């Protein structure tokens, strides 16, 4: 948790890992007590729990008594074909046995907050099925999970060819979000639907038995060093679940892979000479003096995207891009060819 001053405005930045599974998921057996301990070890400010079709973690005694780590309990919903995975928060209801149109509409109307999870997956081995978002016309959600550690990792797994190497060095295979997902996200924003983006770990702690010995890999504590979503909350607001979810929903955040680099003192935002300014996820009125400013702890390639198209780039640790018209502006920042930071949009109107 850090204090941050952006254009004279004061914020608290919280770093955390979204999309964690626990003993309350059918495909995970890690206890919440251990998850919380490992999250604290990695100095996380918050985690979200998204067990499959379960909200049981809400009443877990370790969640109820936790005071230092913000534990936000949601769920992961799916349809009758186990596709259209949906991360949902701010609800006490699990919708089972329904199609995606039904549960997305239900949660939207009931005031829940939802994100399409790992919508477009890739596999090089038929042994592992894909969990896809096939009905792209269903998009009455709040945002999209644009980068999912487990989804990218398993998409590159070919057990007989690279299996052992991937298990021993998993983060070497985490490179960038799939461009197809970024394109869909951009398309929805161009249509004026204003969807935010999150990055996640999708942590399960996997198991394997070899030569009679059981191995654990992709442990929660390993993934906690990788893809996070850093949230910005105005410092006069309470640091509670409601305000963290609001920052997530509104896109007052950026996605960062800590294995590529610590984003120490990173900031990005648009400002003009008259004091008009906006942080990530906000709207600002166009004027000819607007610039998109950024600051990084290390030199990196910073690309400016407008309405889904790359319009400029710099290789620097700080600088600014001129804003030449109305549109949706965001940054993609890479180091050594790997994805580092992906900001949410700022909407210039």
Topology:
Layout: E1 2-6, E2 9-20, H1 32-41, E3 46-52, H2 61-65, E4 70-77, E5 86-89, H3 100-109, E6 113-116, E7 143-148, H4 149-155, H5 159-168, H6 179-190, E8 196-203, E9 206-210, E10 213-217, H7 220-223, E11 227-234, H8 241-250, E12 253-257, E13 267-271, E14 277-279, E15 283-284, E16 291-306, E17 309-322, E18 327-335, E19 338-343, E20 346-348
Parallel strand pairs: 2-3, 2-8, 3-4, 6-7, 7-8, 15-20
Antiparallel strand pairs: 1-2, 2-11, 4-5, 5-6, 9-10, 11-12, 12-19, 13-14, 13-16, 16-17, 16-18, 18-19, 18-20
Q: How would you characterize this protein structure?
A:
It is a single chain. This protein has helices spanning 32-41, 61-65, 100-109, 149-155, 159-168, 179-190, 220-223, 241-250; strands spanning 2-6, 9-20, 46-52, 70-77, 86-89, 113-116, 143-148, 196-203, 206-210, 213-217, 227-234, 253-257, 267-271, 277-279, 283-284, 291-306, 309-322, 327-335, 338-343, 346-348. With 349 residues, it is an alpha+beta fold. The chain folds into two domains: 7-257, Alpha-Beta Barrel (TIM Barrel), CATH 3.20.20.140; 267-348, Immunoglobulin-like. 45% of the residues are buried. The strands form two sheets. Strands 2-3-4-5-6-7-8 form a seven-stranded mixed beta barrel, surrounded by four helices. A two-stranded antiparallel ribbon has the order 9-10. The protein is built from eight helices and 20 strands.
């Amino acid at each position: 948790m850090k204090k941050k001053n952006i254009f004279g405005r004061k914020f608290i930045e919280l770093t955390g890992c979204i999309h964690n599974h626990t003993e309350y998921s059918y495909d995970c057996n890690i206890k919440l007590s251990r998850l919380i301990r490992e999250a604290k070890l990695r100095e996380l400010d918050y985690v979200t729990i998204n067990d499959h079709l379960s909200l049981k973690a809400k009443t877990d005694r370790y969640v109820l008594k936790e005071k230092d780590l913000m534990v936000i309990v949601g769920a992961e919903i799916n349809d009758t074909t186990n596709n259209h995975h949906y991360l949902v928060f701010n609800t006490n209801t699990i919708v089972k046995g329904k199609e995606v149109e039904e549960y997305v509409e239900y949660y939207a109307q009931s005031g829940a907050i939802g994100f399409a999870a790992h919508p477009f997956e890739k596999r090089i081995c038929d042994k592992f099925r894909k969990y896809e978002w096939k009905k792209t016309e269903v998009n009455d959600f709040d945002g999209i999970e644009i980068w999912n550690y487990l989804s990218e990792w398993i998409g590159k797994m070919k057990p007989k060819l690279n299996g052992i190497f991937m298990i021993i060095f998993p983060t070497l295979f985490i490179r960038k979000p799939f461009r197809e997902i970024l394109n869909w996200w951009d398309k929805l924003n161009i249509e004026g639907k204003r969807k935010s983006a999150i990055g996640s770990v999708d942590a399960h702690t996997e198991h394997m038995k070899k030569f009679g010995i059981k191995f654990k890999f992709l442990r929660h504590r390993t993934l906690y060093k990788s893809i996070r979503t850093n949230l910005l909350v105005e410092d006069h607001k309470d640091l509670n679940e409601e305000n963290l979810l609001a920052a997530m929903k509104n896109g007052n955040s950026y996605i960062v892979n800590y294995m590529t680099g610590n984003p120490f003192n990173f900031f990005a935002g648009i400002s003009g000479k008259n004091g008009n300014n906006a942080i990530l996820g906000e709207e600002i009125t166009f004027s000819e003096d607007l610039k998109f400013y950024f600051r990084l702890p290390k030199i990196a390639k910073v690309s400016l995207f407008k309405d889904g198209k790359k319009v400029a780039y710099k290789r620097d640790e700080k600088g600014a891009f001129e804003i030449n018209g109305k549109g949706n502006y965001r940054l993609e920042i890479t180091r050594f060819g790997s994805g580092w930071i992906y900001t949410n949009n700022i909407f210039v109107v």
